[in-house]
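User: Could you check the structure of this?
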Amino acid sequence: MIYEKLSDISYMYDTFIFDAYGVFWDGRGFYHGCLETMEDLVQQGKTVVILSNSTSLSEDLHKKYTPNGLIPGKHYNYMISSGDLLAEQIRHENISFSTCPHPKTFYVIGEPHTKIFADSTYKQVNELSDADFVYIGVPYIYPETYRQYPQYADKFLPVMLDKSKQPVVWDTLITAPFSEVVKKIAYLRLPALNANPDFTAQEGHPLISDAESSFVVRNGSIAEMLRNHGVEVLEYGKPHKNIYDYVFKTISNHGIILNKERTCMIGDTIRTDIKGALINRISPILCLDTGVTSQDIALGLSVEEICCQDNIDFNQIIQIHSVGGK
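Assistant: Sure, the predicted structure tokens are below.
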């Protein structure tokens, strides 16, 4: 059975964990009815958590969403990111790989996240040969790479302009520009660190006139490329147990008794949101009409086929059209 909206089944749960992108946010704005649904849950005394596979700290996510109308205390109780968890691990020097138990230096792919490594003992280096490990940042394309791949110019979407109004940072729809660095990392046998296991994300690109939201490459795709080349990848975030334990601990520290049987995860991505819910024994609620799964369905895949690809029991999933309904 497929339910129309989340409120059709909300009586079954006390704690609601929401993914952001593809669930209530499409990269440009909120999906229909989501804010109203989340506000209603908070008013009912439910615990509402936003759990994002983002390398940004939650304090920065607050700054991003609040001006758009997503208000703490009104629409949600807690906002947690995988970046929060990684920052805590870095602060306590808990990063350890089987091939390098005590790393000190790191090389960055994509966007460097200075806040995550701020005031830590880990030092960023500019050459792979000087690194103990690789940190997978948001896989943005920068001018040097952009110039190397003119054949993919239509696959790059501008994110930032310089003072002369020229693009200097791009999102990418393909992983090809990262193939060479992945091969070098594998050759050097460097392990990698990733705090966003999402393969893609739905993003808006306001620098492109009348552009719609696009599904762009994210950190998890680069991590998968590295794994396919035999690289050890340490990950934080959905679907891994580490981020759910962090969420449960955060809730408990605020005096809330968590009952997993009355806790659900609302997501749009089967391999992260839904798989993570099943691993951690909470109810998985899948949005069909928004986000990643809606794209897969548009390409002709069924939810059952997607689940089979990811070794997930289709029969355990609760399906809704969207959080707010049509």
